[in-house]
């Protein structure tokens, strides 16, 4: 049990899950629950996937590479950047194969719908990743029409990079929400991968980590807790994922990964904040953004989601 949902001083619900902190050498420093079990990291995999794309020849950097790692909110600057990635590869939004959707961010979604736009792949939160996958294929001379196929050279390269950075094993490959393959790895492996990313000084890992640190607004968006977390803590890289996954790498090479078992997102931030505080992260802006999970009664805060036992 990692979190209580408290309403008026009464524990109304609980959330179970697992959390782990790894040392720069991969040793487990802190474990809550079973971190050896496999999870789908969902969008927390995106920085790892981006490393594979850079290894394959993706030449983007800075804000465009940060967008490759993103689950963006669909703000105007996100969509401009996604189109720029496609245009740089001689492609257009019609080449995207991610699931058409409305923007992820509340304000961006309302504005999109008010303007009369239908669900589109360019607006969906994974368009930066898919645009970058296509650009990597162009750079490597690979077919773009089949880039989501698990047997495609790009996806094989991503599988190899997942194994390399997490230490494996990959126990399952399925289809993620956006249509691309997703790999099941031990939670502890996800933490190790982010520790390696955050501490890298050269190569594709360092390039991806630098892009995330310098452009956190492209990784998430205005008001997003992942953007605030990266901006507030020097040297930190992070990525949130669906089904209540969160992965963090610290500049000294320590890695952190959290998975809430029921997949509900409300406990993820408070649990991660408690773990980060336990390992010495104290920046109030970062922790407040994660911990702000009020329980409402008649529209007013009457309780909160609170980490326990950490």
Structure, briefly:
With 310 residues, this protein is α+β, with helices and mostly antiparallel strands. It has 12 helices and 12 strands.
Beta fraction of the residues?
Answer: 15-25%
- The share of residues in helices is 40-55%
| CATH architecture grouping | 3-Layer(aba) Sandwich
The structure class reads alpha+beta
Q: What's the tally of helices? A: 12
How big is the Rg? 19 Å
Looking at the structure, the CATH topology is: Beta-lactamase
Major β-sheet profile: 5 strands, antiparallel
Q: What's the mean pLDDT score?
A: 98
Strand order of the largest sheet: 4-3-10-9-8
The stretches of 5 or more residues where confidence is low (pLDDT under 50) are none
Instruction: Just give the CATH class.
Output: Alpha Beta
Overall 3D shape:
globular
Number of domains: 1
Note the run of SSEs as H and E. Answer: EEEEEHHHHHHEEHHHHEEEHHEE
Task: Give the total of beta strands.
Answer: 12
First-residue to last-residue Cα separation: 10 Å
InterPro entries: Asparaginase_II
Protein name: Asparaginase
Pfam families: Asparaginase_II
């Amino acid at each position: 049990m990692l979190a209580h949902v408290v309403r008026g001083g009464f524990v109304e619900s609980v959330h179970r899950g697992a959390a782990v902190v790894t040392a720069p050498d991969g040793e487990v420093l802190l474990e809550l629950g079973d971190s050896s079990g496999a999870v789908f990291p969902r969008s927390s995999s995106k920085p790892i996937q981006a490393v594979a794309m850079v290894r394959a020849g993706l030449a983007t950097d800075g804000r465009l590479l940060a967008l490759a790692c993103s689950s963006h909110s669909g703000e105007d600057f996100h969509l401009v950047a996604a189109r720029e990635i496609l245009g740089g590869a001689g492609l257009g939004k019609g080449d995207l194969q991610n699931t058409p959707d409305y923007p992820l961010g509340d304000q961006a979604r309302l504005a999109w719908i008010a303007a009369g736009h239908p669900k589109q792949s360019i607006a969906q939160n994974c368009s930066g990743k898919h645009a970058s996958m296509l650009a990597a294929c162009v750079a490597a001379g690979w077919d773009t029409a089949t880039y989501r196929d698990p047997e495609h050279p790009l996806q094989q390269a991503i599988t190899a990079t997942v194994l390399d950075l997490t230490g494996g094993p990959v126990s399952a490959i399925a289809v993620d929400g956006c249509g691309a393959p997703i790999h099941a790895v031990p939670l502890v492996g996800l933490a190790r991968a982010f520790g390696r990313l955050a501490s890298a000084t050269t190569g594709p890992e360092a390039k991806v980590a630098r892009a995330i640190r310098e452009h956190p607004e492209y990784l998430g968006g205005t008001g997003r807790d992942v953007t605030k977390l990266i901006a507030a803590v020097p040297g930190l890289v992070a990525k949130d994922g669906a089904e209540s996954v969160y992965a963090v790498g610290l500049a000294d090479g320590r890695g952190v990964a959290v998975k809430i078992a029921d997949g509900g997102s409300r406990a993820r931030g408070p649990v991660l904040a408690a773990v980060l505080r336990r390992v010495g992260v104290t920046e109030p802006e970062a922790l407040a953004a994660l911990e702000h999970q009020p329980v409402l009664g008649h529209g007013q805060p009457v309780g909160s989601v609170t980490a326990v036992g950490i």
